[in-house]
Each structure stands twice: as structure tokens, then as C-alpha cells.
Fold this sequence. Notes:
The complex is a heterodimer of chains A (257) and B (252).
Chain A: H1 2-33, H2 39-50, H3 54-78, H4 85-123, H5 126-132, H6 137-176, H7 180-190, H8 195-219, H9 224-255
Helix pairs in contact in A: 1-6, 1-8, 2-6, 3-4, 3-6, 4-6, 4-7, 4-8, 4-9, 6-8, 8-9
Chain B: E1 5-16, E2 19-30, E3 34-39, H1 45-52, E4 60-65, E5 68-69, H2 75-83, E6 85-88, H3 100-111, H4 116-129, H5 145-157, E7 163-167, H6 175-192, E8 195-199, H7 203-209, E9 212-217, E10 220-225, H8 227-231, H9 236-243
Parallel strand pairs in B: 3-8, 3-9, 6-7, 7-8
Antiparallel strand pairs in B: 1-2, 1-4, 4-5, 9-10
Helix pairs in contact in B: 3-4, 3-5, 4-5, 5-6, 6-7
Amino acid sequence: MNVLEDAGRDTVGLLEYTGGVANLLGESAGFIGRLRIRVKETLDQAYFLGVGSWSIVLLTSLFTGMVFSLESALQAVRYGIGGFVGGAVSYAVIRELGPMLTAVVVAGRAGAAIAAEFGSMVVTEQIEALLSLGLSPIRMLVVPRLVALIVMLPVLTAIADLISCLGGMWIAQIYAHISYGSFIDSARAALPLGDLPRSLIKSVVFAIIIVAIGSYQGLKTRGGAAGVGKATTGAVVISIILIFVFNFALSAVLFQN
Amino acid sequence: MTRPLFARLEDVGVRYGPKVVMQNLTLDIVEGAITCIIGLSGAGKSTILRLLNGLKQPDSGRVFVHGKDLTTMRKNDLIEMRRSIGFSFQFAALFDSLSIGDNVALPLRENTKMKEADILRLVEDTLDAVGLAHIMDRFPSELSGGMVKRAGFARAVISKPAAVLYDEPTTGLDPIITHLLTDTIVRLRRQLNGTAVVVSHDLESIYLMADYVAMLFEGAIIAYGTVDEIKSSINPIVQQFLQGSEVGPIPI
Lengths: 257, 252
């Protein structure tokens, strides 16, 4: 019986959570649709969430491209297919690794920051204060972050894609003596032109996931400082899981026809 | 003659999980008066304030403000209603990313079409009324507890609300600041010509400012009246509370 009870409770909890996040996104979309966007706050958030994440995105993407090239280039040369390394690296980076790893890094930084900030605001009654003034926390807090990250995450992803490919190209030249020209030709041949915009669609979806989960976790914080910690951890873990799940689903939809 | 009511809680029941905080609670808040709510810690006094501006919905019963039932009100009407009621939180709940001036200006900037120059003038006047005109550009973390509370008062009253709800306005403050805040509440109520509901443990302040006092005990109002009527209540629970005695019917 306990197993059934637990399963029932978890199912209700999951439905409640999904409904809560959907409701938050629906309200946000309503404000965005009516152009009720706080411009200054959105620009501040674009700077904090986007520009502020630039250095860690740059480092992670550079080393991802480099290690992918290191592992593949030597093997490829050994089997006489060194001319395909540029294609392999750019294909993997632009379709999968770039959008996903950038989103994971930003979820760790920005998603956690959103959940912690909103959680602290709940604990110190600032969210209730907004409501008591007749103001919507969704419009005041969630919408600026959502708009900012929807714009900034694709930009970060495009930069990450470029840096990864450059890192991969450099390592392929150093370790496997694959020329820059050969690498670029291979990348051009392997990668359809539409793949980059399609991969940026992924980034938009990931941005929505990061802000929606971070905001929901923060706004549902209960129980003081410990609650803020739980909300923050939960925001990062759930966002990352959803990024992986949606990455698979989006790859299936965007790239398999 | 019966005075008009600002609000009425009617047979209200509230639970937090398994804990019953209020059961069949009925309370009238008289228009244009200062009503103070007293009671033990955790009795649900602050919950009454949250019921009065719709931040909390009761599990049973009804809450009327100016004759309108908050429990059946549409969301947009509830938001409009909240804008006509100021709320001063226990720890002020100022937005820590905004300066004091911006905190106080926020309801005007977001809820009205006033010009920025007019907003700034009104913010200055309101901060001046609570003795804080000189700290507009400072942030909440740079202020003392008493100053933060007064800034919270200023934000609560800047829209000239019909009523202001004060949650523990003097708790944890020294006697001089306590006296200053008590005076401020009385003065602001008079200036706004509105209603004030104050939740407090501070009996001295309550005796100075209250027109009516309601005592909350075990989820119900067990005494209600003027300060003199409450002081002379024959209810042993009220007397034990007022005297701060350990001996009596209140379980400790």
C-alpha cells in the first residue's frame, strides 16, 4: 500500500509542478504578448545573465572543442580519414555540444542565481510585498529574465560554437597536422547551412527551461535559508535534466528529416 | 450608532497543513479607526492582515472589504483592491536591490501614470513625513531597523490608501523609536483620513494609539472593545495576557 501511496503522491506532485511551471510560462507569455516588458530591468538582466556568463562559456566551449578534436583527429589520421575531422568536430559541436553545454553552464550560473534571488525574496517577504502593492512578481521579475535569456543564450551559443570549432581546428593542426584549410573545407561539406539556426532554436528552448525552472523553484521556496539552498540545488538539477531530455527530443525533430 | 465597517471577517477558518490557526473567527474592522490585534506569538495575528488584503485565502468563511467578498473576487479586482490598502511588513520587506527612494516610488511608477517629477516630489514629502527625507539614495542594508520600518511605512502610504495594515511595527526597537513609530502611525492615519489595522505585542503603544483592540486566542477573537473595555475585561485569559503573568489559564 505504501508503494501505491508514494506513487500516487509523486504523480500528483509531478502534475502540480508541471502545471505550476506551465502556468508561470503562460502568464509570462501573456505579459510579453501585451509588450508589458520592463526594458531597463531586461537590459540589466541581459548583462548579468548573458554577458556575465561569457567567460565560463568561452572556457568550457574552447576545451570541449579541443578535447573532441584531440580524441578524433589522431584516430581519423590513423585510418586515413583525417580530411573528415573538421566535419566531425563542427557537426558535433554545432548540432549538439554547443547548445547543450552552453545551456548546462548557464543553468549552473544563471538558473541558480534566479532561484536563490527569488527564494531569498520569498523568505524576506519581498514577493508578498510586491503582491501587496498590486504588482505581479511574474511581470516584475520573471519576464525580464525570460526575455533577456531568450536573446542572450543563442548569442552565447553562437559564440561557443565558434570558439569550440576554432579550438578543435587548432588542436587538429597541432596534433594531427590537419591544415586549417582542410578542416574548414570538411566542416563546410559536412554541415548543412540550416543547422546553425536550427541549433539556435534549441538554445531558445533551453533558455525558457532555465528561467522557468529557476523562477518556479525560487518562488515556491519554503523554510528559510535551508529552503533557499534546496530551491537553488533543485533548479540546477531539474534544469540540467530537462536540457538533456529536450536536447534529444529537439534533435529528433529538427535534424532527422 | 453603529460605525461603518472597513472590513469584516465572517466565520473564517484557516489551516496551515494539519494545524488549525483560525476557526469560525469573526471580526469587524471599523472604518476610520485604529484597530489593534493582540495575541500570543503564532496565534495567527499576521494571518488576519494577509486575509484582509487577499494575500491569503481562508479555507472557510468569508472576508469582506468595503462590503466586497474577497473570497469570490476576480483576480484583477483583487489586485485593484490591494492597491487601495497599504501593507507595512514586520521586517519592512523593502526591495534590497532598490534605493529607499526607488522603493517608495515603486507603486507610483508601476501603478500610476504620474510624471517622474511629481513622483519624486511626493516621495520626498512622504519620506519627510516619516523623518527620512535625507536618505532617499541609500539602500535598505545601510539603514537601522527603525529607519527601515519607517521607509516601509512610507512605501505603504505613498499611494494614499484607504487603509494601512501594520504587522508588528514596533517589535525589536528601542523605546524612543517605538514611541516615534507609534506617533507616526497615528499621524499617518489622521493625514490619510483612513483606517489602520495594527498587529502588535507592544501594549504601551497599543494603549496610546488604539481606538479598538481585539484579542485573538486559539483561533478566535475572545475579546473586543476600546482600550478601557479591554483593560477592564473580566476574561482571565485577557487579564493574564495584559499583565504578562505566567500564572493563569493560558498554557505556556
